[in-house]
Amino acid sequence: MKLRAMVVRAQENDPEGFGSNADVKFFRVLVQLMQDVVSSELASDEFRLGNTMGTAYRHWR
């Protein structure tokens, strides 16, 4: 929510060039990752935790 507020503030301060703001760029990439990459591949082995939490929880994602 704080990042979204920073993006809105950047847009209000510079309606023409707010796209070059670092917070705006980060927000765009973050939203893209959440919507496209993570949500479409939740069952992927890439999201397995492995032995991070111990062998009993190896199957967790």
Overview of the structural elements:
0% of the residues are buried. Helices cover 51% and strands 0% of the residues. The protein is mainly α and 61 residues long. The model has no long low-confidence stretch (mean pLDDT 86).
Which short descriptors sum up this protein?
61 residues, mainly alpha, 2 helices
Please tell me how large the radius of gyration is: 17 Å
What is the typical, i.e. mean, pLDDT? 86
What pattern of helices and strands is seen along the backbone?
Answer: HH
Largest sheet: none
Count of individual beta strands: 0
Brief digest:
The chain has 61 residues and is mainly alpha-helical. The chain contains two helices and no strands. The longest helix has 19 residues, at 22-40.
Topology:
Blueprint: H1 2-13, H2 22-40
